[in-house]
Design goal:
The protein has 15 helices and twelve strands. The protein is of the alpha/beta class and 391 residues long. The strands form two sheets. The chain has a seven-stranded mixed sheet with strand order 1-7-6-5-4-2-3, with helices on both faces. It has a five-stranded mixed sheet with strand order 8-9-12-11-10. β4 (146-152), α7 (164-173) and β5 form a beta-alpha-beta unit. α1 runs antiparallel to α11, α3 runs parallel beside α11 and α11 packs across α15 (377-389). The radius of gyration is 21 Å and the shape is globular. Bound molecules: pyridoxal-5'-phosphate.
């Protein structure tokens, strides 16, 4: 099974069949499990085997199928599923850190990830933020006592690509754990572990579901980290993934590769066609040769990803006119969906940030983030071009 190709793993890894031999994965919608005897219950609390469960906050067969399938794709020893992507980010960091520890993080982070770092600061963890694309800043920030480095491999919404391999080398030289939020890279394009990431985190809400239905998250890592560091924290603090959501995510994984590749191919077509459009200040897409980290993106993902960021000339008013004129592309703040989705980060996902921080991160009033879906690229391009005409 280890040498199966990713598409085969996405369909078959982690499968568990009951005595009925059901074809489609079963939803074990149960909180608890019945023991044959008091002695068996006692034994299971001391140590549970691979197919022995205690309580759904600790583990559940449907959730376990999802965890094993994603670990197989990511090529980590183990994984732990969570109620949302943020539960995964919070768990990955908080389970590892204590007061007095030092963390270095890339400054271009999803708003909620920045908030988690703020909370850690309140509990005595020292956080240093760096420009993730500047290796010299990582070199001078990572110290002998740095416990972890945290980064989004491709940043939201400005699509800066961080050189995971070089950052991991810098971190490992000081013994720090490398935690990568890999949502924008997707499990399909991820080579995070090969590049040196110790822990890889996904919001399953995005591409893994792919149909905008359920919240979910997952943390992938070594068995020692997942079972000895992360699991005790997560199972006692309660951010477990529901068995129903795990089932939706399993079904999502079956088509993940097909969807994500189509999305990336649509995204490239759109980015190339809109590049140089008179109504646009810039088109940001790691798949374009002009992107500042194009070479790194190609090395570490082999593609530009599924998101294209556009800067509309004329600031917020122009950006709003553009969004309001779209028909196929929907205004919403999710991403990774089969449907194309557009959002104006400065007034939505990143509204909370102070103006100067928005400016540092490049979140300008004209910036819009387009998550490209699996519709026909020609229809999408027609919709986008027509809406730009309304600006
Ligand atoms: C969406 C997102 C998250 C949070 O995931 P939820 O499932 O919404 O909790 C974390 N990191 C990144 C990069 C994201 O895009």
């Amino acid at each position: 099974m280890d040498d199966w190709k990713p598409r085969t793993k996405l369909i078959h890894s982690g499968a568990r069949r009951s005595q009925y031999g059901e074809m489609s994965e079963a939803i074990f919608l149960t909180q608890g499990f019945v023991y044959d005897s008091a002695e068996q219950a006692e034994a299971r609390f001391i140590e549970s085997g691979a197919d022995e469960f205690i309580y759904a906050r600790y583990g559940n067969p449907t959730v376990r199928m999802f965890e094993e399938r994603i670990a197989a794709i990511e090529r980590t020893e183990d994984a732990f599923a969570t109620a949302s992507g943020m539960a995964a980010v919070n768990g990955a960091l908080t389970a590892l850190l204590k007061a007095g520890d030092h963390v270095v993080a890339a400054r271009a982070l999803f708003g909620s990830c920045l908030y988690v770092l703020e909370i850690l600061g309140r509990f005595g963890v020292e956080v240093t933020l760096v420009d993730g694309t500047d290796l010299d800043q990582w070199r001078s920030a990572v110290r002998q006592d740095t416990k972890a480095v945290f980064l989004e491999s491709v940043s939201n919404p400005t699509l800066e690509v961080i050189d995971v391999k070089s950052v991991a080398e810098i971190a490992h030289a000081k013994g720090a754990t490398v935690i990568v939020d890999n949502v924008f890279a997707t499990p399909t394009f991820s080579k995070a572990v090969e590049l040196g990431a110790d822990v890889v985190v996904y919001s399953a809400t995005k591409h893994i579901d792919g149909g905008g239905r359920c919240l979910g998250g997952v943390v992938c890592g070594t068995r020692a980290y997942i079972r000895k560091v992360l699991e005790p924290y997560l199972k006692h603090t309660g951010a477990a993934m529901s068995p129903f959501n795990a089932w939706v995510m399993l079904k999502g994984l079956e088509t993940l590769d097909l969807r994500v590749r189509q999305q990336a191919s649509n995204a490239l077509e759109i980015a190339e066609a809109l590049d140089g459009h008179p109504k646009l200040e810039s088109v940001i897409y790691p798949g374009l040769k002009a992107h500042a980290q194009h070479t790194i993106a190609m090395e570490q993902m082999g593609a530009g990803g599924t998101v294209v960021t556009l800067e509309v000339k004329g600031g917020q008013a122009a950006a709003f006119r553009f969004l309001n004129a779209l028909e196929i592309v929907k205004i919403s703040n999710n991403l990774g969906d089969a449907k194309s989705i557009i959002t104006h980060p400065a007034t939505t996902t990143h509204q909370r940030l102070p103006e100067e921080q928005k400016a540092t991160l490049g979140i300008t009033p004209g910036l819009v983030r387009l998550s490209v879906g699996i519709e026909d690229a020609e229809d999408l391009l027609a919709d986008l071009t027509r809406a730009l005409g309304a600006v």
